Amino acid sequence: MKKLPLLTLISWICFLFYAGIGIFLSGFLLVKVEVNRTSSCRDPLFSENWSLNIYSKNVSQNQLVDFCWSKPRFSRAVILIIDALKYDFAQFDSKVKDPQHFQNKIKVFSEYIRSSPANSRLYAFRADPPTTTMQRIKGFSTGSLPTFVDIGNNFASSAILEDNLISQMQKNGKRVVFMGDDTWDSLFPKHFQQSFPFPSFNVKDLHTVDNGILKHLYPSMKRKDWDIIIAHFLGVDHCGHRYGPDHPAMAEKLTQMDQVIRSVARLIENDTLLVVFGDHGMTDTGDHGGESQKETDAALFLYTPSMLVSTEQGLAEPMVVPQIDLTPTLALLLGIPIPYSSIGKVMVQLIPSGDLFDHNAQELQQAEALFVNAKQVNRFLETYSLVAKHLPQETLDHLQDMYLKATKNYIMLRDAFATHSPLNSQELKKLISDFHVYLVSVQEMCKVSWAQFHSLQIIVGIIVLVGSCVVCFIVSEFASIVESSYKELLFLAVFTGAFASGTVAIFQFFWLEFEAFSVLGTFTVVAQVAFLWKFNHLKNSNRYFLNRAVNIINTALKGELQMTSPLIVFMVFLLRCASLFSDSYIVAEEQVVSFLLSSLGLFILVHLTWYGNLLHSFIDGFKTTNPGMSSQQMAFVKDKKTMHVLVACVALLMFSLCLSHVFHGCRDEQVICTPSLFLAPLCTLQDVQLRNIHYVLSVCSLLTSYYLVRRWLCYYGNFNSHSLAVFVARFELPLLVVCICLFWAVSSTPEESFVNWQQFIRLASSVFPRVAFVLFCLGIAAVFWNPLTVFVKPKVLSEEGPITQSYRASGCVSPQAELQHLIPHIYQCMRRSYQVPKEEGESLKDEYYQPTVEAFGLGTVYSAPMLLILVLFQLLLALLHPEGLALSFLLMLLEAFAILQIHSKTSSLYRCRLYSDKFSVPWCVVLMWALASTQFFYATGHLPTFPSIQWNAAFIGFSEGHSNQVLPALLVLLNTFSSCILLAVSCPLLLFWPLICEPSNTAKSGSKLGELKSDNIPVMEMKLRDNPEYFSRALLQLMARYLFIHGAQLLASVCAAAILKRHLMVWKVFAPKLLFEASGFLVTSLFVIISLILIMRVDVCLTRWVKQLIPVDSR
Ligand SMILES: [Zn+2]
Ligand SMILES: [Zn+2]
Q: Distance between CA 241 and CA 246 in Å, rounded?
């Protein structure tokens, strides 16, 4: 086979798609420019051009000359962050008779509010999405809004460079002591005087972080060598992830937190502020990340023994406080500058100090705080609009007006106060509300304009993707032409592309700003155009185009119904792409895809009946039950049998489709939906019997999938060889299965039950998966190293009866393998093909016609290692999922089998009538394969939303956390795109399967053993080796078709996101779907290439093997 053109063309297609995705995303994903400037106390509050004469005369110098609050209300603060402390958790309602596990457990807040209302406050604390911990820490410390892209950085949290509270504290001489979630240490390296970080990523561990904090918290508080203590508890969050909120463990955890807050509040002194808050909430399943109110609403509790809020306040207090508002509030209360990029609004109700009873003076102080706040926000806006030009100028001007007007009023009032003239209370109130409106409008504008898009990149990205689809389609449909002249095509494309992009780069370098995307865009667009132009001007392609068009018209005119087939398939594909444009169809994508998939299955049956193939054979089959059948009649009987198999396979497909719905997860948008029971890890099941049943089911499904593959290998005689691949199948796979089962057993034991065995259980739950990983890697390496599963039986031996018997007794050469797949024919065919080139040089030897050896498993030499790799991946991926999903993986295997069988039976029924192209795999089947890959994305419990990513996968085998970010990211990636991986890696089976199933059709019909020249010889996959050119072409076509379908889906998703970019659901539905589709394409293309490499590896080994065999045996 031709290896180079195949690999080059496929990588070329992949590159084009990657470039398109990259360009599009660079324009679509919102990027907020970081302003790397910091506030400082010495920043002047008043611009020089304001008349300040009265002001400066009358106000003492230490008041308001600088940006800091002159006399901070608190000199110290204790900040307790209880991760995922939902607002519901913090409320206490004595009326609830039968509280859920999370209800009424934290009583301390309500007790303090009742007993000392002037000293404490409880608010709902609303976070901006994404509600992930790192984003929240960033948001609260900088006072800024995160953008969509940031969400991916959760694993690579690096230091915050923007101005933030913590660095301001440090700069202003506050001694900060930190304890808890180690994310802080990486976000604020060297900012703490003392820090006690604990690993945060193991969500199964409920206690390490919290107990670690408790060990240091009270001693530190008593030592008094601190100004700020920050403690970040993770237990509640981890408990939510592990068990969900309504679980006894949560009650225990919340009670513990209640105790902690109580003890800390008792230790607090008058000059100290206690702040307790949750960084985000959680859903009913205990997850977070999205923007539903359950995830955004946390609790914020403030307490101090001195007076916190004056009880006779004029202002109505808000019930809900945005999270970013805490930033300026804390800054002003502690007397440090507000971080430069903060757009938060100070919580004015906390501003008047407790001893001020003069109403007007209080309000003046509030106005003063708002003025400082507004001044800082305005300064940030000015700087930001210089750095990034996407803030709308009109709004900016309007805001500037508001700000100037309010400031003027403030200075006038301030002057009036300074000259002891009576203050107009009405005016003061209006001023406060003016500042308020200004700050809120700034927040609004930032929220809107940080959702800006770069239209040019978006358009170029779409153009490149459309071009990639066209190129991919041409490669798939004209595989032979493209392959034979790939050098000219690619050379011209790359050369012109490089020339054009080089020109653009030079031009930009000297005269404009250099932009990587435009260079890449020029390269790909020009290269695509050149590719298509060259293709159109190839010598034979014009004629080919014409021929094909004429053919299509001819058949259509003749009214041959076979032409409906591509039409219907095209319709189904169109519907699939169209469904990506509707948010409700994306929400219900699982149902859409399985509907389309089962429609295709049924359509094949209907179409065969309509076309006469099924009906024909059915009726004729009944007629010819009498003996003495002609060979034609025999063929009909066989067709009838095929038909039965076909119907059974369609039924199997429908069955596994229906059953796979059991494993679905739930999106926020689906109101009536309960997530599958199988998605929860076994340890969360409280019913022991149910847990045991689930465990047995999972183990059985692992064993079944292993058994099925083993049976298959035995049946085709691949199980006797001494190669490493067979060694993997014989010993490593069972060992891997055992490892996984043991790991599941260990990890699902409840912690309470074997207290004495804790140490052992912890050890075992990290050792077993690691062993499994090592086994998996060894297995993959072994299969690639030595993929041949051919067993050679010398003829000399086979003539002596007993030895053959002993092979059979070993149990691994099934009787069928002996009868049907005993491969003398294959071997001869192979030898003939090997010797044909020699024919010119030397004369043929006589032994040529007499088989000297017999080789088992040669007929499935390509698909056997493919199947092994498939099972290896299946086991690995099952390990990375919750235990219950092992069943889903078995279903996937069955469904893939059903599709393969449908494909091979259909093509044997259509034989030479429709699919006249050699080895060509029809679109219909490729589409089914691609749809199955989407469908099993859902059936393995995944959803195209960020909160639904199964982060737990990163800690399987690494419960104590990771030292680097590559491995966890890889594990989560494998977990998320498992369906893409499995179906992409096994995609070439579509090409092999009809050939494998061939002998059972042809072997019985006439050909005797040893008959050589007949075309009926069951040579199975050796047929591919006999026609190496067709082989690589068919492979190229198959891969290009598979990539095309995925690429076109990606294009549809991209277009949907681009067209609907102002849609209400864009960040909730379309953009996440697009990102999942894009990463799915990356993974798919990568594994398609891996499977290609495997096939080439087999091919190389086979050639070497044949070369070795011949000289030895013919000597
Ligand atoms: Zn959190
Ligand atoms: Zn969490």
A: 11
241 alpha carbon, closest ligand: 2
Task: Tell me the Ramachandran region of residue 159: left when phi exceeds 0, alpha when psi lies from -120 to 50, beta otherwise.
Answer: beta
199: CA distance to ligand 2 center in Å?
13
Residues 6 or more apart whose CB falls under 8 angstroms from that of 626 comprise: none
Spatial separation of the C-alpha atoms in residues 457 and 463, rounded to whole Å: 10
What percentage of the chain exceeds 70 in pLDDT? Answer: 78
What is the 329 CA–ligand 1 centroid distance (Å)? 21
The tokens for 3 are 């290896």
Ligand nearest to the CA of 951: 2
Q: Report the separation in Å between the CA atom of 80 and the middle of ligand 1, taken as the mean of its atom positions.
A: 13
Confidence of residue 929 (pLDDT cuts 50, 70, 90): very high
3-class DSSP state for residue 273?
Answer: strand
Residues β-bridged to residue 123: 300
DSSP conformation letters of 673-737: ----GGGS-GGG---HHHHHHHHHHHHHHHHHHHHHHHHHHHHTTTTS--SHHHHIIIIIHHHHH
Q: Decide: helix, strand or coil at residue 121.
A: strand
Q: What is d(CA 432, CA 410) in angstroms, rounded to the nearest whole number?
A: 9
**Cα(202) to centroid(ligand 2), Å:** 10
**C-alpha to C-alpha distance for 112 and 648, rounded to whole angstroms:** 69
CA of 297 to the centre of ligand 1 (A): 12
pLDDT at 928 exceeding the cut of 50: yes
Q: What is the pLDDT of residue 1109?
A: 65
Containing H/E element for 301? Answer: strand 297-303
List the 228-233 sheet strands across, edge first.
194-198, 176-181, 228-233, 76-82, 272-277, 297-303, 120-126, 320-322
**Contact criterion met (CB below 8 Å) for 519 and 508:** yes
Q: How far is the CA of 83 from the centre of ligand 1 (A)?
A: 4
d(CA 234, CA 82): 6
| Closest among 830, 836, 824, 832 to 792, alpha carbons compared | 824
Whole-number Å distance, alpha carbon 288 to ligand 2 midpoint, is 6
**Among 19, 3, 86, 144, which Cα is nearest to 1054's?**
19
**Main-chain dihedrals φ then ψ at residue 63, nearest 5 degrees:** -105, 120
Q: Over the stretch 293-302, which tens digit does the pLDDT of each residue have?
A: 888 899 999 9
Q: Which of 643, 655, 642 is nearest to 598 (CA)?
A: 655
- CA 856, 1030, 896 angle in degrees (round to 5)? 60
Ligand nearest to the CA of 132: 1
Burial of 1074 (0-12, 13-18, 19+ CB in 10 A): buried
C-alpha of residue 287 to centroid of ligand 2, in Å: 6
Contacts with 522 (C-beta within 8 Å, 6 or more apart), sequence order: 497, 500, 501, 504
Report the C-alpha dihedral over residues 290, 292, 294, 298, rounded to 10 degrees.
Answer: 70
Taken in order 134, 136, 142, 145, the sign of the CA dihedral is: positive
* Ligand that comes closest to the CA of residue 288: 2
Q: What is the pTM of this model?
A: 0.72
Q: What angle do CA 124, 126, 127 make, to 5 degrees?
A: 145
Take residue 711 and report the two structure tokens written for it.
């049976």
Closest ligand to C-alpha of residue 285 is 2
* 320-322 and 120-126 beta bridge pairing: parallel
**Rounded mean pLDDT of 702-722?**
85
